[in-house]
């Protein structure tokens, strides 16, 4: 069993107006087999948390720690984090010119495993995983994400999740921009991988909709760069009814 | 059926991309910011930072923003360009000329001013049986069979070369394997060279010009593709770092002939290849491919001309370039002229550039002149993209180390051209050469 532990994390970004703090002391522990949902209004820092875990250079960690089974994640480069077992399904996957999906998937798999996958099994695995996610076979020959629709890009993120078998998957608003059918397909993919028992999931979302398909064990409400409330799945139901109003300053004042 | 039957005009597009942005780089220390963009002034874009304000579209005219709306109007038609076997007819180069405005004349090392009487590169030919290889005199009838110089440097070489090398694939002969002309530069004095490649009617073959070593060379390559012949010419510029090379390559395409031309420019300080294909009868089919990879400080220029002078011919052009390092500069100009008599023409040209680091400049200028509306199709495209930190982040976030991520992108981008060569040993060598280019820049 693995543990991803985030302790008192403070993160800021450089803006034209100077340094701006985004995360203001986030602590969170995820174990293998658990699904944690992070919910919160726009601008609360949810995606910053995801990008920081993956090591995006835009975000600087001012204090706090992230460890994976005791190893210092913050000391690792982006590719080392991935090889250590962290996977970020991105909110806006970029198009990579000149690189076919086939080539990309094989290269990544080789890098992650430290050896090239057996060609015969790999081709079969990729085909099967693509079929499960209703991704057209001809996508394999297209350049990574090039000309893919928003929904197709998200499905391709989950395709990678299923092929790479990470220890921890961070899904950054994977549900946004998906219609109900696509949402179901993507959720099934996450559940398939999760059910194998080797993965912990951090599900970042603005809406409760995806939680109908992916059942969280824990729900954390993110407001202004920190966790304002935590609970079980019932907290999501409450948010569904009440929205984020009671957590935001304006409404708190209005209610007073 | 014409897709463009209302369009009888000259289209000139210009895409200049300068990348000087400095962002946080994944996996490497952040560089200090530089604010300097070649070719851009406070007033706007200056098309030729190389030759100062002197370019026809530079200086005041650049402020008017529109193409040709300034004081200096570029030569209105490719058809009207001066052609001559004598350098004097072109006058002294200033860098203002439309076809020299991107070239740093100072780095030509005298090719445009000196007598080209230095020792020409050694030329060794390896040819399969059946191919005729000859040294021919200036007076030989084959000299001038395919081309007339279109610029001063080419004309200078035409005036100054002593004897030429002729390679002939005889009529009805299909050559197995390829003919390779290894051109090995041994002198840094300005020199001239002349090569004539003839594929007689209904012959088929592949000819490779493989340039190595160091030279200051102006070269004319005449290519005659006979009726019904099928010829591939590959010109590889794999020079040492200090070489200067201007190569005018003229192809004359016969009836129902097929011609494939591939330019690969990797090494040299300044390499300027000007390939042209002229249809002289109907039914011709031309494919022109190019790959260039410029490192810091290198100037790699390619100026193409496809002359649709006859009806029912087809042309496809695809050039791809990669740039890395400070002051890497590439130029691609693709002129396509569809003359009035060239009804039924089908043409498309595309240029793609990939900027791998900050500090490079890719100029891309597709020009399409259409003098008849009765054509099958005519189009062009140009795109210059940047391999940026977000691409790098995406690939690295999937476990791929930084150097491998760059290799993946560049290899994918350029392989498409290398695959066109169809000479396995050469394809392999060039793939390796591209890999070396990437590794050489180990500064990442």
UniProtKB/TrEMBL annotation, chain A:
One of its GO terms (molecular function) is ATP binding. The keyword Phosphoprotein does not apply. Coiled coil: none annotated. InterPro entries: AAA+_ATPase, ABC_transporter-like_ATP-bd, FeS-cluster_ATPase_SufC, P-loop_NTPase. SUPFAM superfamilies: P-loop containing nucleoside triphosphate hydrolases. Residues 4-249 form the ABC transporter domain. Keywords: ATP-binding, Nucleotide-binding. CDD domains: ABC_FeS_Assembly (cd03217). Belongs to the ABC transporter superfamily. Ycf16 family. This is Fe-S cluster assembly ATPase SufC. The lineage of its organism: Bacteria, Bacillati, Actinomycetota, Actinomycetes, Micrococcales. The gene is sufC.
TrEMBL record, chain B:
One of its GO terms (biological process) is iron-sulfur cluster assembly. Signal peptide: none annotated. Residues 189-413 form the SUF system FeS cluster assembly SufBD core domain. InterPro entries: Fe-S_cluster_assembly_SufBD (IPR055346), SUF_FeS_clus_asmbl_SufBD_core (IPR000825), SUF_FeS_clus_asmbl_SufBD_sf (IPR037284), SUF_FeS_clus_asmbl_SufD (IPR011542). Pfam families: SUFBD_core. Residues 24-83 are annotated as: Disordered. NCBIfam families: sufD. Belongs to the iron-sulfur cluster assembly SufBD family. This is Fe-S cluster assembly protein SufD. It comes from Arthrobacter yangruifuii.
